[in-house]
Design goal:
The structure is a homotetramer of 329-residue chains. With 329 residues, chain A is of the alpha/beta class. Chain A has helices at 11-23, 47-51, 103-115, 140-153, 186-193, 209-221, 247-256, 265-269, 272-284, 311-328; strands spanning 2-5, 27-32, 35-39, 56-60, 80-82, 85-87, 92-96, 120-122, 157-160, 175-178, 199-202, 227-231, 261-263, 289-293. In chain A, strands 7-8-9-10-11-12-13-14 form an 8-stranded parallel barrel, surrounded by 5 helices. In chain A, helix 3 packs parallel to helix 4, helix 5 crosses helix 6 and helix 9 (272-284) packs parallel to helix 10 (311-328). The longest helix of chain A has 18 residues, at 311-328. Chain A is elongated and about 75 Å long. The first copy, chain A, starts with a strand and ends with a helix. The relative contact order of chain A is 0.12. At the C-D interface, helix 1, helix 5 and helix 6 of C face helix 1, helix 2, helix 5 and helix 6 of D.
Chain lengths: 329, 329, 329, 329
């Protein structure tokens, strides 16, 4: 870690700084030109803390602040086996409804999704909703129906968990999802790090790429290495799309970490008509798969423009993804 | 709630829409011009859900999606009494260190802060840190020392709570703070809503004003009306300041809600030299007070440029705030 | 255009509103439920102006604020012929150096780019630089050298124009580029609209998709329909990449407008290692081509990490793009 | 300027780098620890260029990239005399309509604004509008009427100039405004730098604080030191306010530059009800004044909620500002 001091910093100040940093267990080497190098396991050292010193102009890490999630820590891609699916190696399509609404609905959609090429079934049971007055999901019943859909289709299932209190209920859920709003709920992350369940960690809508990696590090540092990262759009000034899918993040994450990366184009754009091009874009940028919403509700034809796609569109998307996958995997 | 359909929407579609909305327990009145009005307690209706219908062009609420936090629900300002302090009525200055580091440190800073005009003492014991390798606070000991500082100074104390598991430990803490990263941790919000403790709810760095109000609504909807909102800077493209203090949010919140609003200029800018002007700006825009970091560490003179201010600067700030307060309260 | 008034708006107010809008030459139809529809050529009506009225809650357009650039105005894709290149129909790769530095340099790079699959040569001569002290380009000499590169390679050339004063100098330049900083320099846009030259209009780093389309409309409304839109990254809170390439904008623009859309991944990310995945992502999302920086400078091996790619990387990118193009065109 | 190289950079690479930088006319001092210091007039050196080298991890300036606008270049505040107004020393309130609509309208508003405490009259004649179909201002007639308002009230006037072609028309305009959309129209900035007219330079909605200062530097570097900076809100994810007024930018600019800084709360928030609190906030944060929209149109009572305030509100704002000014000037 290289520290650059302000132009007028005197030697005494740098001396005190050196003494302080050494007291934290690191080596310091004053380099001249108002710079110093801090040596040791600097991932343990908070850049913000160093930056906060009055005469520090800038701090540059020579190694990343995350450790176990980094490519340097582990060169080869992490592959997570869930059922017969190899996430991080094979193209993975996770599909299903936003919320589990009934046993019939989830089984119907799961079956249709499987037929259309999905390899993992998604469905929300405990839903973190912006409004306390919105439907908060079917809860334990939702989990039960999702497990039935798993038995019916033979496909693994993923569902969001919003509190460590529910860990027992999720015993038969294959992948535990941490939603964007809980990406920095460290209490939850630590609890998941103590399990051996695959975790799908969604990027917060206001979270940087580094913050996402640090949240994954929380899980790995507790012992659970099975983390899948998910880009799902960030908040920007653009209002035509609900969020802005950050495909650069997908491409960059593939360089920074060995963990599998997937993208959720449905939530990112909020428009079913953009789901296909964004799915292709995410996989072209390096994603190992996508997660999207699919629906089958003939009774309400008017919901066809939702962010959810129909099974036939899902089929079209998985077919197109397979074509592209051969050139980018 | 007014729904505008796309130009080419046919009557049959609008008919199905009407039927569906009625099935949810609302009245629908088709207005012509491809618009319809949904009547009833529309705070219970999710705008996003309506927007997701294929032929819906836009949805406009005629009443807000939050209820109990709104000015319409309660005209007069909510005033929260904590010790002798009337938050929402009197100018409130919450000051203290970022983290409680020792009994001596917190008592020393709390005493200095009191002398400099602070009316509430802040200090972190359980710290949600971006990195799992950063100091996570003194935990229960931190809480114990903070309570000692409270006894020593006679001032109420505020500290961040990161899990409902710790509610018992916080029995003697006067105000429970929900940090920016947990603003949408609804599991925690609901638990706090079931207590009768004042809650200081910080705006997430990527959270909209409406999302902040909805998170407050979670607490009020569970029965706890003692919520203080805190603007602490949002993420923008600007990199010279750590975050961008959104004083428009302060001014707007005063119109939208009866809850007290404070601002945290220390975290927002990350530079002690901007703490004074931003404190004045926040109070001028309508904030009932500020929350800031103060330190006293003669041994490390080099930390004078941190986001924390010295007691003498705090004195200067509280004096200036009092001068301005008379014209804006 | 549907106008929704605030809940308590009285009939007299709506009456005055109606009268005023009629005075502007539009029809108004009051719909009940505090809504009104404005009819006529509403692209001529400024939404912001209507929104600014005190009792207006929201304004929804039923048709877009742009006209000639819209898909409704022209269903089929606009194809712009430049030399032998059909932009908007064929996969187009525009490549070259950021700045023309010498005759030798531009010819060398142009030749290498052609060999690597580029179909248009780019190069800056008049450079809008953030600092007045930075190199502002070779000016007229740069244009001269670029034209030589055109003659040498037989490929058309594109170069940024920063003032209408230079239109004569650009007589032999095939495509006039409007840079991101000048996207809303309407004086320049109007002047370009009066020429019959193809214009490549870059999206401003802080400009919305709608603002980009409105800027294009300035050019079309003056009579020049040969506009190519270019997504080049927007400003967001993310700092690991220079800007955030908005591929959703690419996908959405293909639906909203008949104009060709290309993407500039080099400027967007600022890292050569991301140029390939972002190029693939942009084309997968619907872009008709990409614009990127390429360099050949064996003498300074250390510049290999710049946003510019080497000719051999360009070759790899164009090959990969061709593979994907067959599935997405 | 301190350059930090990546961890594995070898000596030969640093040697080539050194040679290259020296070829540009700067001194280089290799410091060890993979760092080097570049010495000389580094404001002439583009940070982006250095960052673009493959093995460069980070670049830190020890002096700012701007020169003549910086506090180091000139310690004391620049005060710009316009008529009897001392901008940068006295509290300045610039008020008037968004657009000049008629001679009667501008004289009426200007007179009312003067009475309400305004010291400078604003009014748009050439309007840069997002849509080519929106009213583009009265042009030369608008300028003529504005000059009449100046004669009538005795107050100086400010108006936006959108092209250097119009410089002659603006001979009697006291302050030339560069709008947010033209902040990086360097052709225009250079032309204004060659005049001796005060220039009010608005921050672009997507422009960083540093970019604003660099644009001002363009004007100063051409010889014109009379520049007033104007913060007018930046684009963020928040949609409840039109833009987000960045008061931290106001506070920070006062430290970085000697130029006067004003704020435009009307455009920033787009709501007249927030104009007062934001005006107070901006001046409390260090602004030397504000620029706002005022209107008098009894015939259309419904426009009272526009971003423009009524003369009586303007009076209230100027009175409140005077009260606060004594404590913050």
């Amino acid at each position: 870690m290289i520290v650059v001091f302000k132009k007028d910093t005197d030697a005494a100040y740098i001396g005190s700084f050196e003494k302080y940093i050494k007291s934290l267990g690191f080596d310091v080497c004053v380099l001249g030109g108002n710079t110093a190098e801090i040596k040791g396991d600097t991932a343990l050292l908070d850049t913000e803390k160093i930056k906060s010193f009055g005469m520090v102009e800038s701090v540059t890490r020579l190694s990343s602040p995350y450790k176990k999630v980094s490519r340097e820590y582990r060169k080869e891609d992490t592959v997570i086996k869930v059922g017969d699916v190899l996430i991080g190696k094979d193209l993975t399509v996770m599909a299903g409804p936003c919320s589990v609404e009934s046993e019939k609905q989830i089984i119907e959609i799961a079956s249709a999704a499987k037929k259309a090429g999905a390899s993992v079934i998604r469905g929300g049971a405990f839903k973190p909703r912006t409004s306390p007055y919105s439907f908060q999901g079917l809860g334990k019943d939702g989990i039960k129906y999702l497990v039935k859909a798993k038995q019916e289709t033979g496909l693994p299932v993923v569902s969001e968990i919003i509190s460590k209190d529910y860990l027992d209920e999720y015993a038969d859920i294959d992948i535990l999802q941490v939603g964007a709003r809980n990406m920095q709920n460290y209490d939850l992350l630590k609890a998941l790090g103590k399990t051996d369940k695959p975790v799908l960690l969604k990027r917060g809508m206001g979270a940087s790429i580094e913050e996402l990696l640090m949240s994954a590090e929380y899980i790995l540092s507790e012992g659970n290495g099975k983390v899948i990262l998910c880009e799902r759009g960030i908040k920007t000034f653009e209002t035509m799309t609900r969020n802005t899918l950050d495909v650069s993040a997908v491409a960059l994450l593939k360089k920074l970490t060995h963990l599998p990366v997937v993208a959720d184009p449905s939530h990112a754009c909020g428009m079913s008509s953009l789901v296909k091009p964004l799915s292709l874009a995410a996989v072209s940028a390096g994603a190992s798969g996508i997660m999207l919403e699919v629906h089958t509700n003939p009774e309400y034809a008017f919901s066809d423009g939702a962010q959810a796609v129909k099974p036939e569109e899902l089929k079209e998307i998985t077919d197109a993804l397979k074509n592209i996958w051969q050139f980018v995997k």
